[in-house]
Amino acid sequence: MSILNVTNLTHMYGDQITFKHMNFRLLPGEHAGLVGVNGAGKSTLFRLLTGSLLPDEGNIEWATHVQVGFLEQQIDLQAGTTIRQYLERAFRYLFEMEQEMNNIAERFAEAGDQLNALLRKYGELQAALEHHEFYQISSKVEDIASGLGITDIGLERDVSLLSGGQKTKLLLAKLLLEEPQVLLLDEPTNYLDTVHIDWLTGYLKRYKHAYIVVSHDEHFLNEITSVIFHLAHQNIKRYAGNYRQFQKELALGQLQQQATYEKQSKEIEKLEAFIDKNRIRKAKQAKSREKMLSRIVRVDKPTDGPPPRYTFSTPGSAAGAAVFETKQLKVGYDSPLFKPVSLKVRRGDKIAIVGENGAGKSTLVNTLLGHIKPLGGELIAPEQVKAAYYWQEDTAPEETPIEKVWALRPDLTQKDIRKVLAMSGLTAEHIRKPIRTLSGGEQAKVRLSELMLTPSHLLVLDEPTNHLDARAKEALKKGLIEFQGTILLVSHEPAFYEDWVTEVWTVGDWR
């Protein structure tokens, strides 16, 4: 029996159709991946499944009493709560049960005739706590926190002091501790190092309940899935097997569709030529061919639309040979994060900065850019070097893409701005929506559009491949290879950078 049934689902944004008469189901314990190009509607479908959006038509039916867990997008992590305390909230119902048991114990001395009933209730509660492994909560919290790299931050750290990526990991850890019957995970590997992705892979493979995972990490997706749901052309198709099996089946299906499309196109062309040639001389036969033509069910040409294209330019004025130079530079806030470093970044260098979360990658970059004052040593950064930045957090979530990008370059026409947004893979529908309503991949493309319109000697990119689909990643890689300036790239994805960067800085090795 299905735990989720979606029937005849139709959803529109304005006059644009996102899904049309979609049908699919999820079975108990099924480990599913949800895939599709950026803009196919993966995040929208998750919002529909969780009830934060309502469909225009159709039904979404969850099995009775099924517990569905998903990452909350906006949550207020108030000061005064430690990481450990927040994670223990996953077991709130057990702590409430313990409190009820303690309240009963306080009544034993004066229970009188009610003592046996109280003892029985006390025993039932204690048995329930033992059944749910209440006395192993501390161990469970530490295991999950360690697996996701949260113990490196410190379980007694106040949640209000966490960065955006750390907060995301905290929410994921709490969700895993809750062990819902259905997990809905949108890009869970973002902000995770390789070792923590490996841990999450093993955890999900052993997970006894069902889940649907959105991810553009193909290796991760291949390891954790037994079913793939593919979103394309306003609909969804189910493929049995892991991600690689899906890719093979999809490629075969596209070849077959292409062959059918080409055959049908020739038939249509032949019919149309006959009709045009014989409209007067053989009107009856031409009319018959017109009827035949009108009855043909057209086969779509297999395509996901044009791929994105990214081009980054340098200013007219040239920078000097050196972009940065450091001498025994000490990087950190209260104390150095690693030993003093002497570095030189020359014009045209393309450097990947790698290391575990918390190693100091972002702090190093912000120090080099002058956003954080060094604790010691010398930083030489020529003033004529113009830098452009790609950060994870968006600063104007209520604006539309066209408003945000046009504000950056008011000297351009609206047509120019639309052209750049289209190059990034954003449609006319996307650019009219508030940025906060776009998927992670679509928001990333807005930020990349801004970079394309900012001539610079130096591009600084912080995890730019998070949320991007395979086509967009390939297009971004091509654009960065062709860029004539200097690049500082923070990344956890060696497959993206290892064949084109000129140098790799492994921050963890500097400790």
UniProtKB/TrEMBL annotation:
Residues 4-258, 323-510 form the ABC transporter domain. SMART domains: AAA. This is ATP-binding cassette domain-containing protein. One of its GO terms (molecular function) is ATP binding. The keyword Nucleotide-binding applies. SUPFAM superfamilies: P-loop containing nucleoside triphosphate hydrolases (SSF52540). Keywords: ATP-binding, Nucleotide-binding. InterPro entries: AAA+_ATPase, ABC_tran_Xtn, ABC_transporter-like_ATP-bd, ABC_transporter-like_CS, ABCF_ATPase, P-loop_NTPase. The lineage of its organism: Bacteria, Bacillati, Bacillota, Bacilli, Bacillales.
